[in-house]
Amino acid sequence: MRLRPDAAREQRPIPEHAADGQRGGQAGRAGTAGPPPQHHLHKGGLSMDAIALLKRDHDKVKGLLQELESTTERGVKTRTELFARIKGELTVHEIIEEEIFYPTLKQHPRAKDIVLEGYEEHHVVDTLMGELEALPVDDETWGAKATVMIENIEHHIEEEEGEMFSKARQVLDRAELEQLGEAMEARRAEALQAQVRSEEGARRS
Ligand SMILES: [Fe+2]
Ligand SMILES: [Fe+2]
Q: Which ligand ends up closest to the CA of 118?
């Protein structure tokens, strides 16, 4: 779909090392044990690592989903605006995951299955969003469909923040996670600009 694995090619996976096994029983310290960060991979600066960046996105989306859940058929304007915001956020989030985070993680055999599941879950959510967009927000089925979409997104976020991020911490080191974070920030800025341009285009026509 939006797959462009070459976008992450510069992030060569590095061999697994002592990061393995440091998670259990060391809550809050994951990523601090093991060998020192590999500075040659890091361009410097106070960048946010990939996991923190994706979690921040998740929290934002979860807040918006809660708001959407409390809307009714009569709140046409609120529903329409909220749905558009959610769709905008999720579209950019899926782009940075599918073009940068997923392809890098998928190269590690231990993380491959959960990444493949992630792509499928995105696909289900995309399908539901497409159907919701094509349906008048005051249609009697809109709310039920939105609930199913919300449940799917919440489940997906749980799986990413659980199994997927835990695998990511095992197979990627700190420098690599920061480099991915930087790449995702840059790609996000580009995708947001494209969104603004297409909204402006739609308004003009
Ligand atoms: Fe995500
Ligand atoms: Fe995702």
A: 2
